[in-house]
Amino acid sequence: MTIASKGILRNVLAFVLASTSLAAAPEADLRFFTTNRDVHIQDAARQNYVILDPEVWEKARPDLADLRLYDGERQVAYQLSQARGGSISEEYEVKPLNLARVGDHTEFDLDMDGVAEYDHIRLKLDAKNFVASASAAGSNTLADRAAAPWPTPSTLYDFTAEKLGTNLAIALPTWSFRYIHVKLGPGITPAQVLGAVVSNLQERKAAYIPAGTCKTVEPKPHRTILSCDLFGKMPVDRVVFTIGTGDVNFLRPVAIEDEKGNRFSSGELSRIHARRGGQTVVTEAVVVQAIGICCNHLTIEIENGDDPSLDVKSAQPQSVQRRLYFSPAGRSALKLYYGDAKLGPPSYDYARFFKEEPDAVQAELSSAAQNANYNPRPDDRPWSEQHKSVLWVAMLLAVAVLTWLAVRGLREKPAV
């Protein structure tokens, strides 16, 4: 390659690199938000939060990265949080002691040595298709078995034959007794008691808001079909069903698909009212969990098999509350801005050290309003993105020139 051709190639590469350089990350600017809302603070001396409603999801970025809180022209730090429920549980496996038949039922003790506190006992039973009661009493010595009886027996069951599920858990208050004496109702033999797992289940309930509406459409054979429209592309975290009281002893698979036909969630609806051996079992599961998918439309299918369709009174898509937490620092009113599709998430020290306070109070959002000072952002894309055709012409021209120089060089006679 000649010196001239190398120079041309070097200039073309420099042009391409310069034209494709990345633009700087955009900064927040009040002029570039499409929407604003007043934030009415309830208690300026405590941590506050606002619940992000469908109006926010309608105009904000899907990831909520463009939310900004302002006091005049000054940003106020915040932290986004989801009001998800959860449970903390550490399980311990314990062995039954003194396992024996007493009259027509089975009794045994559980040694809780090493378990500080517990409120659930899950038995391991080698038994199918049964219903039995389970009572428990706590004590600190084996000799004093009835020192603290729990007056609310649990109902254990296995409905494998009917395909209606299983429950082998004994629910208790939070106890710290060294020993638990368990008495099972008739139907479970000592040989069927294989062990137990104890745990302390600490639960926090999630908070939800409606995310859409559903209606029943023309059913297919063996299926109930519901069509759901979502509010502002809100993420769906669960669907809550209301089933008529006349439907009992059912277990129906449920599938949820997005608007593209992709299945993103499945579960079961069930309601059991059964009486076996003098014991009554009453359970209901009418909630199908989802995974926070965001779209415009959902389709729900309930598989009925050869049974009559369920009397579905309603189906409610719901979203876990997304909350914006902040410290008012004496301020009584702020403004929330959003609707800048190019703006990325903020970075605040407040978020790095955030801790939700138990006495945080909810602030109120006004209705959404068009930002009176709104102006579209200038086109800050790299030059190459704005002028792709020019860039391609330049590159093709450079290739043509280099090809011509190469061919000419091959035709030239070498110097003597």
Provide a descriptive summary of the structure in words.
- The model is unreliable at 15-22 (pLDDT under 50).
- Strands 8, 9, 11, 12, 13, 14 and 16 form a seven-stranded antiparallel β-sheet that branches. Strands 1, 3, 4, 30, 32 and 33 form a six-stranded antiparallel β-sheet that branches.
- The two termini are 19 Å apart.
- Helix 1 (3-19) runs antiparallel to helix 5.
- 23% of the residues are buried.
- Strand 24 and strand 25 (279-285) form a beta hairpin.
- By secondary structure, this protein is mainly β.
- It is 13% helix and 45% strand.
- The chain has helices at residues 3-19, 54-59, 349-352, 383-386, 388-411; strands spanning 35-40, 48-51, 68-71, 74-76, 79-82, 86-88, 91-94, 96-102, 105-111, 118-125, 130-139, 148-149, 154-158, 166-167, 169-175, 179-184, 193-199, 202-204, 208-210, 212-216, 223-230, 235-243, 250-258, 263-276, 279-285, 287-294, 297-303, 312-320, 322-326, 333-338, 361-362, 364-365, 369-370.
- It folds into four domains: 3-23 and 381-409; 30-82 and 326-370, no CATH class; 88-204, Jelly Rolls, CATH 2.60.120; 208-320, Galactose-binding domain-like (Jelly Rolls), CATH 2.60.120.
- The longest helix has 24 residues, at 388-411.
